[in-house]
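Q: Given only this backbone (364 positions), what sequence would you predict?
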């Protein structure tokens, strides 16, 4: 984006704009990795801080502190800081959205809803997956959104929508389609669709190496998008069982694997203790993924079952957790990467349920 003033076909421009800032001053690509490390560390600390502040609205300072501490020892979130990926900044933006929505539930100040929607829309320009979360938010708050135009804070929302439209128009002019990204088409075809096809043909699924994936390397973006749409239609008609089997397989893998960032570490200094520490961190991250994913699903179902007793903001968190876990199964073999973005929300939701159960118990 900085060198050619051109949008990327997979990553929306806000992610490139933020992480590419060093390229304003130098053409040294390595500067981006140092900048991303510093930025990710700051965002990681900011996430802990926002989680703490959000928890304070539902529990005591002491409980909020210890619950926030749980996130600070999540291995997957720590190690992915060192990678030039979207997870760290996306985790922060989603939690910040929830922080504003909970504030809106408490004080009904329209500016907090505006800030929440603005951050949420901007997050689409970091990770296209977020578009579904925007729709969830609109469904819950559509009546309240009608009040936004009367607020002087609405300029923040209009600005985020403007950037959103710039991405869509830019993609249309550059690649031919009004879309945030082409990553959804290639991800489905290369992962879920290919695995379903492998099950049908009794082949082994190898990420990025199967024949049908290799054959798409020279397709244009429009051709790839069209191919993916035809493939999913065909699979739903003629290979539905294997498609469901592939989806469940991906869901299981994404929910039970440890940190791919830990797995990818190399013992450059040839230290004797490297293997022991790497194994330990892999095991811990694996346990955290399994435990927090299961807790996230369970607590979300509990919240939805008792929907009448919960605020819109709490219901939004539950739907977001289930949505992200469900959508993650379109891809696979990325370790805990797809679920670590939900860890703060799961900790928040679990703490909320425990506090309410304790209050109910003491009342009885």
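A: Predicted residues:
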């Amino acid at each position: 984006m900085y060198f050619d003033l051109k949008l990327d076909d997979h990553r929306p421009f806000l992610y490139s704009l933020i992480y590419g800032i060093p390229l304003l001053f130098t053409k040294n690509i390595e500067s981006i990795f140092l900048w991303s490390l510093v930025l990710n560390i700051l965002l990681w600390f900011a996430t802990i801080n926002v989680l703490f502040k959000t928890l304070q609205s539902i529990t005591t300072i002491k409980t909020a502190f210890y619950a926030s501490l749980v996130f600070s020892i999540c291995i997957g979130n720590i190690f992915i800081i060192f990678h030039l990926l979207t997870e760290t900044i996306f985790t922060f933006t989603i939690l910040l959205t929830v922080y504003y929505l909970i504030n809106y539930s408490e004080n009904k100040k329209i500016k907090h809803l505006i800030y929440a929607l603005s951050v949420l829309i901007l997050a689409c320009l970091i990770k296209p997956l977020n578009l579904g979360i925007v729709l969830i938010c609109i469904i819950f708050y559509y009546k309240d959104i009608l009040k936004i135009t009367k607020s002087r804070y609405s300029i923040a929302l209009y600005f985020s929508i403007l950037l959103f439209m710039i991405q869509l128009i830019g993609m249309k002019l550059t690649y031919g389609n009004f879309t945030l990204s082409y990553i959804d088409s290639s991800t489905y075809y290369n992962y879920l669709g290919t695995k379903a096809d492998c099950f049908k043909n009794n082949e082994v699924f190898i990420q990025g190496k199967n024949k049908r994936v290799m054959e798409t390397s020279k397709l244009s973006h429009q051709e790839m998008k069209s191919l993916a749409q035809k493939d999913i239609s065909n699979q739903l008609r003629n290979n539905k069982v294997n498609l469901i089997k592939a989806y469940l397989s991906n869901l299981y893998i994404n929910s039970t694997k440890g940190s791919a960032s830990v797995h990818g570490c190399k013992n450059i200094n040839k230290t004797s203790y490297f293997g022991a520490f790497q194994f330990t961190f892999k095991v811990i991250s694996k346990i955290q993924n399994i435990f927090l994913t299961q807790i996230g699903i369970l607590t979300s179902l509990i919240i939805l079952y008792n929907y009448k007793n919960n605020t819109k903001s709490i219901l939004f968190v539950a739907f977001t957790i289930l949505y992200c876990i469900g959508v993650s199964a379109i891809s696979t073999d990325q370790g805990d990467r797809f679920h670590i973005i939900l860890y703060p929300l799961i900790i928040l939701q679990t703490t909320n349920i425990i506090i309410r159960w304790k209050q109910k118990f003491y009342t009885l």
